[in-house]
Amino acid sequence: MSSIQPAITAPSQEIPYLKMPHTEPDIHAAIIHRLLLHFTKISHGQEMIVICIGTDRSTGDCLGPLVGTSLAKLNQSGKLFHLFGTLEEPVHAMNLKDTLEKINQSFRNPFIIGIDACLGQTSSVGSIQVVQGPLRPGAGVNKELPPVGDIHLTGIVNVGGFMEYFVLQNTRLSLVMRLSEIISNSLYTAIQEWHRGFRPRYRQGQ
């Protein structure tokens, strides 16, 4: 479970964060385009890693593992990206540090995409965010864990600020599943397009 708000970005950041309700009809296209803009920062030969954080022991916090399980089915060849965090083998507070150490030992300067659930304001519940910089897993429930990702995607699954553990346990599974479907399908499509050689154009204010 990540912090409520996206990471504060430096004034010189070229790509602003995206935040969009999951009910928007063009949300897939918006996420795909924003991801492709972030992918322009990938160096030649730099491997891509997706880390989906969370646990299936909590309804609200199972967003990451659900996304990871969907991505594993879509990327069965394992050629497009490396994946950590599924329902079968989740990445959570207890093993996150070990997982990151394993990645650091096995890969040289990979481009990492972090995925997690987060809590937010009532008006933001059901929104998906695409943000440059690392996510802060555990911050939403006052845990200190290592930051994850060159970029990250989060789904706002419920209201934050009070009794976070109870709120996570009483989050609607239907919303979490819908957010996971949008994130996994959009991310996989964006990665496919990137490997096919598609390069987006960026205009100020996008």
Structural key phrases:
Pept_HybD-like_dom_sf, globular, alpha/beta, Spore protease YyaC, 206 residues, YyaC, Rossmann fold, 18% strand, 6-stranded mixed beta sheet
What does this structure look like?
The protein has one domain (18-195): HybD-like (Rossmann fold). It is built from five helices and six strands. It has helices at 27-39, 63-74, 96-106, 164-169, 173-195; strands spanning 18-21, 48-52, 82-84, 111-120, 127-132, 151-159. It has a six-stranded mixed beta sheet. Helix 1 (27-39) crosses helix 5 (173-195). The longest helix has 23 residues, at 173-195. The model is unreliable at 5-12 (pLDDT under 50). This is Spore protease YyaC. It comes from Paenibacillus apis. InterPro entries: Pept_HybD-like_dom_sf, YyaC.
Give the topology string: H per helix, E per strand. EHEHEHEEEHH
Count of discrete alpha- or pi-helical segments spanning 4 or more residues: 5
CATH superfamily (homologous) name: HybD-like
Question: Which word captures the global form?
Answer: globular
CATH fold label: Rossmann fold
Number of strands: 6
Cα-based radius of gyration, to the nearest Å: 16 Å
Q: Span from first to last CA? A: 28 Å
Helical content stands at 25-40%
Main beta-sheet annotation: 6 strands, mixed
Q: Strand-residue fraction?
A: 15-25%
Major sheet: arrangement of strands: 1-5-6-4-2-3
Averaged pLDDT? 90
> Could you say which structural class the secondary elements and strand pairing correspond to?
alpha/beta
* CATH architecture level-2 label: 3-Layer(aba) Sandwich
What is the highest CATH level, the class?
Alpha Beta
Estimate nothing, just give the exact number of structural domains. 1
InterPro entries: Pept_HybD-like_dom_sf, YyaC
Protein name: Spore protease YyaC
